[in-house]
Design goal:
The chain has a 3-stranded antiparallel sheet with strand order 1-3-2. The mean pLDDT is 84. It is an alpha+beta fold. It has one domain: Arc Repressor Mutant, subunit A (Orthogonal Bundle), CATH 1.10.10.
Length: 117
């Protein structure tokens, strides 16, 4: 058995099974990913609360899109163009890998509340 150089063996020398969470899933194509995440973001917008993309993705254990660098922003642009969210300001990200970088915050609109009703 050949060990992966990125996996730390246990103290007994065994190689642990990789832990895969839902947030580590990556969608195979954009349309499938969009169909899965869209309703969660519409529901978040309908609450009227201010949120970041990561908060909703983490809360619902959503998969990564095929191109995370572009598709998360595109999702929010689509939601804004459809009138479901508006820009609310900036916050420090809670995403562990970005070291509290500044991120856009969003707030749901009256249209989002009507769509959820």
């Amino acid at each position: 058995m050949v060990a992966d150089a990125t996996v730390q063996p246990a103290l007994d020398g065994s190689i642990p099974e990789p832990r895969v969470t839902k947030t580590q899933r990556q969608a195979g194509d954009y349309e499938t990913w969009l169909a899965e995440v869209w309703p969660k973001f519409i529901a978040a917008a309908a609450t009227g609360r201010t949120f970041t993309c990561f908060e909703i993705a983490d809360e619902h254990q959503l998969p990564q899109p095929p191109n995370p660098q572009a598709h998360w922003g595109r999702l929010m642009t689509l939601l804004q163009e459809e009138g479901y969210v508006r820009k609310a300001g900036w916050a420090c990200s809670a995403r562990p890998t970005v070291h509290h970088s500044g991120v856009r915050t969003w707030k749901g609109t009256a249209a989002a509340r009507r769509a959820a009703a």
